[in-house]
Structures are given as structure tokens and as C-alpha cells.
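2024-03-11 09:14:02 DEBUG pipeline.ingest accepted 1 chain
2024-03-11 09:14:02 DEBUG pipeline.ingest length=443
2024-03-11 09:14:03 DEBUG pipeline.predict start
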Amino acid sequence: MTFLPAAPGTGLRFRRVDLEGKPELEASADLVGDTQRSTSLAKGPVKLHTVEHVLAALAGAGVTNAVVELDANEPPIADGSAREFARMVREAGVVAQAEAVEPFKVTTPIEFTHGETQMAVFPHPGFKITCTSADKGGRFTQFFSVEITPESWEKELSHARTFCFYEEIEFLFRNGLIKGGSLENAIVIRDDAVLTNEPLRYPEEFVRHKMLDILGDLALVGRPFHGHVIAVKPSHFANTELAKAILAQMRKPLEQAQTFGPPPAPPAEKAPAKPESHPLKPEARSVSKTETTTPALIPGTPVLDIMQVMEVLPHRPPFLMVDKITLIEGNRIVGQKNVTMGEPFFAGHFPGHPIMPGVLQLEAMAQVAGILMLRILENTGKIAYFMSAEAVKWRKPVRPGDVLFIDVTLTKMRGKIGKANGQCVVDGEVVSEAAVTFMLMDR
């Protein structure tokens, strides 16, 4: 297994280098498959088992962008904890990226109950986990609570090893679930005895491992979030169901959105760059994260310049309606078009009274949305075809000298079809808006 750095917007991904085409699986609750004893991801025939310990190591360190390469259908078990994975992250180093990732803030309580398992998350200014664990007979009941930071993660949770009860072993072996299991990588509880090849690493090692699993499973939300997670007798099934519920709350405003405001004005002064304690070298095996600061539209510092835009879009002048991308944050993207008198359409639209055609503003929305779809989904070699537009409104004329900001939010993605809401903004005023639909196709 190798941890690799990744570009902003990549998220956490697993790459199966042992399979033809090296397919990738996003760390997403939408891809959760089996949750018996561990968490598995599946996309079509591609599967990956026991992803929670690796995800916990990345999420615990605050990493938001990384690719994990594996040559098997499961990460190495190591010693049954995430200690070795946390060490890999620490030794490789973590760097801040220019594109900010704002944590999602849980706004209303979310609860999930399944049998004796109870899971909930409540609004909280940071990320905190409180957990109570016990077996069905109430043995080894343990409680622990901790505010999750990169420091507390590695010190308080990463060393906790997986465990099982002696009476479960025969069933697990029979179902092929612990083929590599031994006292080198697990703790076995038999009656009131604890079988282990070394002393317990924490007084509450069992519940702390449950919290390690919670952290890894909730990384499937796909974005850092603020909330207080309270769990009683958690399981991978319950953890991932809670992740899906958090994801649903996060997506709800996007699904309901019809319009959105103009982009914020640039700040008076640009905040100083955060120092990087671990500069990322091209040859280094590493991981990376983004700063959690509020993004601002700064025309002079594009996320994608014109050359990078043309690497994504097949359009070329005079039909390329985007000069650069100034912001990409989750499902939102902002592009910029500098409207000059040299635009070829001004020759006939209209002589003596030049106005940018409204349909070209609509095309600009479509092109910016296409960049977002292709970037988020990493559909290399594909093209986003513009299918339809609804609720189209042109409010003010766009003239030579105007700087057009194209603000687009992806609201739905199902299979190859995507929908987005877009606005064109000049000097803080909306000049046009529409809801557009696309289809991804091979070039």
C-alpha cells in the first residue's frame, strides 16, 4: 500500500493497481457495500474491504486529498490498529493546499437506531466522539470521549487494536472473514480473560478501537464536518448509515437550491499564506490537506488558468467562454470571462451597440459546469454535452469591458446525467441565470 499526494478536489481515493485499468474507488458513503466486521466499498465489479483503519489515519491527520494505491482487495492488516498508517502520514508530512475546504457544520441533530445500537450527531464547534461499547452480555463495558484533532487522534485512538470474542472465531473463520487473524494483529476476549501478545495499550482499548472505526467510517462523508458524535454499541453498519444521514443533510441545501447569491467581494488584504512545515517533493510518498479558511474570489490567483482550462474542455476560441477558474469548493465552481471589444460576436450583435448574446452567457454556464463535473468525477477523456436549460432569465446587458463571473453549483448527479444551477454576475449584480442539464459522453 502506498499513500500518494493528490490535487485539490480529489478527495480520498483508493486505486486498485492489481486490476486492469487501475480502477479507483472514492471514499464515499454512496459506495458502501458489505459492513460485516469491517467496511467494504464497491463500484460495479471493483471491491475493496476493510477501508476504515486507513481512512481513520488520513481523516485523523486532517488529510482531505490523497490517493491510496493497493495491489490487493484489502489494505495490510498491520497490527490491527491504525498505528502504522498514522506513522506513514506523519513521516511523509502534510502540506497545506491553496484551495480551502470548509468543514460542513451539522445544523440539526441526526439520530440512527438499530437494535441495541444508537448513533447520533449533534451541532458542535469542533469534531468530538463520545462512545460506550460492550458485548451482548454487557462484558467489558467501556466509555471514552475525546475531541478529535491530529494530535489527539494519534495519541488517544490510533494505537487501539481490533478485538473479537472467542466464541465468534469459528463463525468468522468459516465465513472467511479473518483469514490473516492472529494475536499479532487482534485481541481475543475469552470469558473474562484477555488474550494478547502484549499488554493493553490503553485502559479502554476496546472502546477506543470502536471510536477509531467510527472516525474511519465517517470519513465516507467525503468532507470534514463539525459535530459531536455520540455512539452506544456502534457497528460498521450503524457508522456508515450515520455517514449517509450526514451526507443527506449536507446535500439538502444543494438539492433545494434554485438560485444563489453573487460571489463575495475580494477582501481588502490577502491573508498571509500558512507556512508549510513539510514541503511536498515530487518523489515523496505523501499525503496532502487543504487549509480550513474561508475562500475568497481573487481574480489574480486562479485555481485553473487558461491552459489548464483547455486541458479539461475541448472548446477553443472563439467559442471558449471561460478565461480561468477562480474557485472550486465542493459542488460549487466559479469561472471568469473577461469580455473585450475584440470578441467576434460584437461585430454583428449589435453594430454601434455591442452586447454579449444571452445564449453565450448560457454557454459560459454550461462550460464552467462541465469543468466541475469532469474535475469532480475525474472522467478523463470524456466531454460534458449540454442537454437542456430551464428557468432561463437575462436581467442586464453585458458590454465590452465587463468581467463576467460564472457561478455554478452542481445540484444532482445520477449516472452520466448532471444538473446544475448557474448565474452570471457583473460588478456584484446578477445579469443572467439558468438551471442546466448535461450528459457525460466519450469524446
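2024-03-11 09:14:41 DEBUG pipeline.report The chain is about 20% helix and 30% strand.
2024-03-11 09:14:41 DEBUG pipeline.predict end
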